[in-house]
Design a protein that fits this description.
The chain contains 29 helices and 27 strands. It is of the alpha+beta class. It has a six-stranded mixed β-sheet with strand order 10-9-8-11-13-12. Strand 3 and strand 4 form a beta hairpin. Helix 23 crosses helix 24 and helix 25 runs antiparallel to helix 29. The longest helix is centred in the first third of the chain and has 39 residues. The structure holds iron/sulfur cluster (SF4) (2 copies).
Length: about 850
């Protein structure tokens, strides 16, 4: 089936049809092939294979320029269509297993949630969940509701349930089982699988029309409706679409980019949630299971996702991805072998059929779109051109050609009259708003109850935020500008962050509806203007906590005047790689050190291979224990392993030093979180959000949770107190405490790592205690000066003479040996 020329292939093969060959102009270069329904070739990216041999390689091509051929042979090749029947024979067994595993998974999830309804129907007088809760309390062991055979239900201890191989009926009531359809091959497969499992009356299919749709996707949707209605006449199809045209948002927010990707939220997920709310009567956001065609192979971000994502994009929506592990070839095969409707765009050469223009689209797909669908893509290209010209950007055409617009991270090219400036954020809070688009007082309601009185030029009042009363004053400064003052904020980072988000919303709101669908009670309406029903608002703040600025529009216009924050760079391999919330656990490390040779070769470690092994490998690499490129133990790892049994705390100290160098979240923590102060998890979330303003709160919760989990599950929490878990007023938190028992080996290792980084081997004690210092031993461990100097004296007297220190007569010099590396310190002192 797939190419077998021995080429190293990094991408799954895709079928190639005559339409793509015509587009490439091969019919005019002597190639002969029929206009068959079946594909003619297979391609991996832009390398085309016929009967296993590489026959063509295409390069170049973008919005303005044509492609060229890097390899073409032979010029007069004659192609015959791929024999679908032989394909079927060769693949039907493996495909059968794949599709039935996915269907079983869909069925299990459907039944789990559907059972909640059934439990109520079977015996409306028995509240099984309440019964389970009462028994759990009384018996002091966890009980669960379990579905038995013949539609009956039972309540039993979880241990017993697991021993019987049963699973618990979930508590959440689900209002809709939804299949999301986008016109792409993956959503085509998921639609087919889901309709084969879930009764048609229980399912709704939602097509998200983003306003960027490729024409063949719209045509396919009509064909798909007809195709499935013939089989399932009661299956309901709906189209979700934002109330405003796409260009309205381009105008107000600028073109979406890889950093400011507002389009998916505003044009796709929010309209889908709004539609569900309307279908549910319009009052409250319903709960839904959304089956999607997400596949791990598609992107690095998706690779770490699990098959079930609760509240991944919106509260109340559980995303289920049954074909997460399928590769592209498998989805193509499923469609071809089942004879399902197929998006014509794939036949034309698009490898992905998302939107006609996208910050993630390749130059190649832009090339095809510009040639075949110029009327669809050109209005967007023109809009980008106009905004760049208005912003006096140099070299506009080249900027567009190389896709530089896709990297936009700020609002420089967006015209916006409104502006927000933060003036003070300490004892009191002060800000100035110019030309606000919405009523500040309306948005204040989400923070708590407010009372106010107004004169012609100002409004004063009191805000009750979490049972603390804050006086505020909003005064007119003329020229449609307003001063906002809130007194007694006392550096409360959580309150100040919420205040700022409310002001961002008031200043920049363009009624996109993204925050409205986050509201669980139906209190918030944003269209045609913002209103908050104070009788329904429970001040949960879900309408501001979904985004770093609490507002899609503010984030895209990205004005942060006076917002003095440490901005840290985020990369794909950086802070947003921890998409699991799991940390480096002592129990796992012990297992690894006791069986490191075979650890990854068998499953005796007991870790879940899908959810626990990948984050464990990441952490182990960042801890310096595993090699960067494979799963072998590193030289440092071997030294730590042999020493672990005799002094595990010193090993954890070295691990922490390595993490502060290699792990972006640990680096952030050790350089930004001060010592001796208790921080709640919520405060840490706000602090990390400030450091990474371009990333969403949700994205940042994962790395933070992973780090907190490391502190909880390892000696780094208590014995080496770099992150001691605390509870204040029933809120979990963390405090960094001075670690004065730091081992000599960790002291020297940290100094040598610092020297390697700075290129200086003559250091001073004071430089580590400089309040501006963001690196080094004192930031890492908070060690007090006396303890540090004592360690330096001991190291000087050690037989290995790894350093000299001059600590008398007002001197505080540390002289390291330039012939030693940090690894040598471990060899000498461990
Ligand atoms: S999301 Fe929460 S805070 Fe916002 S309006 Fe709804 S109930 Fe109020
Ligand atoms: S406040 Fe809400 S509705 Fe208004 S632009 Fe921001 S996210 Fe959209």
């Amino acid at each position: 089936m797939a190419p077998s020329s021995g080429e190293a292939l990094n991408v799954a093969p895709r079928p190639v049809f005559w339409e793509e060959l015509d587009f490439l102009g091969l019919d005019k270069l002597g190639w002969t092939y029929p206009h068959s329904e079946a594909p003619l070739l297979w391609a991996c990216d832009r390398r085309y294979f016929y009967k296993g041999e590489l026959v063509l390689e295409v390069s170049g091509g973008d919005l303005f320029e044509n492609h060229s051929f890097s390899h073409i042979s032979p010029q007069n090749i004659t192609l015959s269509p791929i024999d679908i029947e032989s394909l079927r024979v060769a693949n039907e067994d493996s495909l059968f297993l794949l599709e039935h595993e996915a269907m079983e998974f869909i069925d299990t999830e459907y039944r789990k949630y559907k059972a909640v309804e059934k439990a109520k129907q079977v015996n409306p007088d028995i509240d099984f969940q309440q019964l389970a809760e009462n028994l759990s309390k009384k018996q002091k062991t966890q009980y669960a509701v379990v579905k038995e055979d013949c539609d009956s239900f039972d309540v039993m201890p979880i241990d017993e349930m697991q021993a019987k191989g049963k699973s618990a009926v979930l508590k959440s009531k689900i209002d809709f089982f939804v299949c999301s359809f986008s016109g792409g091959k993956d959503s085509q497969v998921i639609l087919d699988l889901v309709t084969r499992v879930i009764p048609e009356k229980d399912l709704v299919v939602i097509y998200s029309d983003t306003g960027y749709e490729l024409p063949p996707s719209l045509e396919l949707y009509e064909e798909v409706k007809e195709f499935y209605h013939k089989q399932y006449p009661e299956l309901r199809f709906f189209t979700s679409k934002n109330k405003q045209p796409l260009m309205y948002y381009w105008d107000k927010m600028g073109a979406p980019s890889r950093v400011l990707r507002w389009c998916c939220s505003i044009m796709k997920s929010a309209p889908l949630a709004v539609l569900l709310k309307e279908l549910n009567g319009g009052e409250k956001q319903p709960s839904a299971i959304l089956f999607d065609g997400v596949r791990a192979e598609e992107s690095v971000n998706r690779a770490g996702r699990s098959r079930i994502g609760k509240n991944a994009k919106h509260n109340n929506i559980i995303n289920i991805s049954p074909i997460l592990d399928w590769n592209a070839t498998e989805t193509y095969l499923y469609i071809l072998l089942k004879g399902l409707p197929f998006n014509k765009a794939y036949r034309q050469g698009f490898s992905r059929v998302g939107c006609v223009i996208c910050p993630y689209s390749s130059k190649w797909s832009e090339n095809i779109a510009s040639k075949i669908y110029p009327d669809s893509i050109n209005p967007f290209i023109d809009a980008i051109r106009v905004s760049l010209e208005d912003a006096k950007t140099a070299g506009v055409e080249n900027y567009i050609k190389i896709g530089k617009w896709k990297e936009r991270a700020g609002g420089r090219t967006v015209k916006c009259e409104s502006a927000l400036t933060f003036v003070e954020e300490g004892v009191d809070f002060k800000a100035v708003i110019k030309s606000p688009r919405e009523d500040v007082f309306q948005w204040f309601n989400i923070l708590g109850e407010t009372k106010c009185q107004s004169t012609a030029s100002e409004t004063t009042g009191v805000l009750n935020y979490k049972r603390n009363l804050y006086k505020y004053r909003i005064s007119s400064l003329g020229d449609n500008s307003f001063g906002v003052e809130v007194y007694g904020t006392n550096n409360d980072v959580v309150f100040i962050s919420h205040l700022k988000k409310v002001l961002y919303k008031s200043t920049y709101c363009i009624h996109c509806e993204v925050c409205e669908v986050e509201c669980p009670t139906g209190a918030l309406k944003v269209s045609p203007y913002v209103s908050i029903d104070t009788t329904k608002c429970v001040h949960c703040l879900k309408c501001i906590d979904f985004d770093g600025k609490g507002c899609m529009s503010a984030s895209s216009v990205n004005i942060s005047t006076g917002d003095n924050r440490t901005k840290m760079q985020s990369t794909k391999s950086g802070i947003n790689r921890y998409n699991d919330g799991m940390g480096l656990r002592e129990a796992w490390l012990k297992k690894y050190f006791s069986n490191h040779v075979n650890f990854f070769n068998d499953d005796s470690h007991g870790l879940n291979p899908r959810y626990q092994i990948p984050p464990f490998i990441n952490w182990m690499r960042e801890a310096g224990i595993l090699e960067e490129t494979n799963k072998s133990i590193s030289e440092v790892g071997e030294l730590l392993r042999t020493h672990f049994a005799t002094d595990s705390n010193a090993v954890w100290e070295i691990i922490f030093i390595n993490l502060t160098e290699n792990s972006e979240v640990a680096k952030w923590y050790f350089s930004e979180v001060p010592y001796g102060k208790n921080f709640t998890k919520q405060e840490l979330e706000i602090m990390i959000q400030k450091s990474y303003p371009d990333l969403k709160d949700r994205t940042l919760k994962n790395p933070l949770n992973s780090l907190l989990n490391t502190f909880k599950e390892s000696p780094l929490g208590d014995d080496v107190p770099v992150g001691v878990p605390t509870t204040v007023a029933r809120k979990p938190g963390i405090i960094r405490k001075a670690h004065n028992d730091l081992s000599l080996v960790a002291t020297a290792y940290s100094l040598y790592r610092y020297a390697e980084k700075t290129g200086r081997y003559s250091l001073t004690v004071s430089e580590f205690y400089n309040p501006e210092q963001k690196e080094g031993i004192v930031r890492q461990f908070g060690i007090e000066r006396d303890a540090f100097e004592q360690n330096l004296r001991s190291l000087e007297q050690d037989n290995n003479h790894v350093l000299r220190s001059e600590l008398k007569m007002g001197l505080d010099n540390i002289i390291l040996r330039e012939d030693l590396k940090s690894e040598d310190i471990l060899k000498l002192l461990l």
